[in-house]
Amino acid sequence: MKSISLIKKLVEQELKELDGGIMDPNMVPFVPHREPAADPPPQSREATKEDELYTLALTAREATEELVKALDDPIYDTAYENAFKATQALRKALNALIGVGADPTPAQRVVAPPTDEQPGGQVSHGFLPGTYSGDNV
Q1: Residue 6 placed within a domain
Q2: Structural domain boundaries, residue 93
Q3: What is the pLDDT along the chain (137 residues), one digit of tens a residue?
């Protein structure tokens, strides 16, 4: 019983030293109010030829996407199909330009990376081989 009262007395003594507790403004000198930014500020750099080509390909991709929207009518099926294939080809062109050194801004990254560069690296079909438990007759 004596040890409990001793512990209680020590806790009360420590609380008195803290004054207002952990959120007391007087306790701030050891804890900064703000943390510095985790990432350093972006360094501005000269646009390379690859960056300019990426911007041109991005403009073409956006134009073909508008064309696909405009051709969304059954009488334009062939034109729609070809415009859609053009957007796919431009997606591959954008990824290829990144592969040779283009460094687009985050806002310019409008296409997914190739599947071999994505987490997992392969397309999942929703089941594991050998896990089907259908009727075995």
Answers
A1: no
A2: 49-111
A3: 678 888 888 877 776 666 555 555 555 555 555 666 666 666 777 888 999 999 999 999 999 999 999 998 889 999 999 999 999 999 999 999 999 988 888 888 888 887 777 777 555 555 555 555 555 55
